[in-house]
Each structure stands twice: as structure tokens, then as C-alpha cells.
Design a protein that fits this description.
The protein is an alpha+beta fold. The chain is built from four helices and seven strands, in the order ααβββαββββα.
């Protein structure tokens, strides 16, 4: 009954207020509530920005596995393996790493589907010279040579008998992405290899 008593009292009070206000000019209607305007974010997503980077010590800092799989459109077997090369003062090389992707369990490096190599040299000219010499050696061996875009840089697509590779330089650094045993179909080489090369030359945020 407590609830009923409260309702009656409230109703009587409401009537009293209504009578008291009957002689007062009605108030204007309250303005509608303001709805905040939401502006969609227009900032573009981050794209790889190639730089003359220091050599990383982990393949996840070259091309992360998830980026590799997304670029290829399939999941590669195994875990990436890294081989750290030695300096070769005779050719001006100051460092080298190779990352092997897609090695099935219990198999060796030769079974890798994709190999990405980064090297550093004493200066820009030496790096460019090493790329030129490598390309000319492949040409002499009968490979097809094509210039392609790699981000805002240029690279050279080399289509040989046993593998296809994309090679180039940026500052003192060189990059090479190798497609082993025709893993990536020829029709997709230009769509995939430059993406991997660009990522390999982009340090993580």
C-alpha cells in the first residue's frame, strides 16, 4: 500500500502545480538535444617506407610471418631461419643476413620457398656496383631481365631457370628476394616480389 499512497500524493501535487501554472504563459518547448557529429578518420594506414636501414638480427624484423603469409595469400610451413653472413672487406661488404621462409619440418635450407637477403656496403657506389655485377652475371647465364618498381625505388626482376629474384639497392644497402623452384607463379611475380622487397627495407615502427 505504500506504493499506492505515494502515487496519490504525487498525483495531487501534480494537480496543484497544474492549477497554479494555469494562469502563467506556457513555456517554449526545449530545443532538441545536440547530437555530436562524428567525423570518420581520414588518416591513411601506414605503408612501408623504404630506408637505408641497419641490418636486423631477426627475420621478424625483415618480413614478419603474418605479412609474408598475407602477401602470398597462403600460410607457409615452418618458422623462418636466419643466416648471418660475414663481412667481406675485399668487395666492400660490411654485413649480410639471409632469411629463409617456408621450410617444411625436418628439411634443410634448400627447401625454403622464399629467401630474402639484405647486405650493407661501405658506400652507395659499392652497393650499386654489386647489384649491377649480379644482374649482368644472371643475364650472361640466360636470365630474363626486367626493371620494376619497388615502392618509390627501382629494382631488377631476374627470371632464371632455377629461381626468380628481385634485386636492388638503396643507399649503402642491397636487397634480394628469391622465389625458389617456381613457388610463386610467373604471372604473380611482379605483384608479390616488390611488396616483399619493400617490406624488407622498412624498419618496424
Amino acid at each position: 500500500m505504500r506504493g499506492n499512497k505515494f502515487f496519490v500524493a504525487l498525483s495531487a501535487g501534480a494537480l496543484a502545480v497544474s492549477g497554479a501554472c494555469s494562469s502563467v504563459a506556457p513555456q517554449t518547448q526545449a530545443p532538441p538535444p545536440q547530437i555530436p557529429k562524428i567525423t570518420p578518420q581520414t588518416t591513411p594506414s601506414r605503408v612501408p617506407v623504404m630506408v637505408d636501414r641497419a641490418l636486423p638480427d631477426d627475420c621478424e624484423l625483415v618480413v614478419p610471418v603474418e605479412v609474408m603469409n598475407a602477401t602470398l595469400g597462403q600460410e607457409l610451413p615452418g618458422e623462418p631461419r636466419i643466416i648471418i653472413g660475414i663481412k667481406e672487406p675485399g668487395i666492400g661488404r660490411t654485413g649480410k643476413i639471409d632469411c629463409y621462409y617456408g621450410i617444411p619440418p625436418k628439411q634443410d635450407l634448400g627447401a625454403a620457398k622464399i629467401v630474402i637477403g639484405l647486405s650493407t656496403y661501405t658506400d652507395d657506389l659499392t652497393a650499386r656496383t654489386r647489384v649491377t655485377e649480379s644482374v649482368e652475371a644472371e643475364r650472361a647465364d640466360g636470365a630474363k631481365i626486367t626493371e620494376v618498381d619497388v615502392g618509390k625505388q627501382k629494382g631488377t626482376l631476374v627470371e632464371g631457370k632455377d629461381e626468380q629474384l628481385l634485386i636492388g639497392s638503396l643507399g649503402k644497402s642491397t636487397f634480394v628476394v628469391r622465389n625458389r623452384n617456381g613457388f610463386i607463379p610467373q604471372a604473380k611475380l611482379v605483384a608479390i616480389l616488390p611488396v616483399l622487397a619493400q617490406q624488407a627495407m622498412t624498419p618496424p615502427v
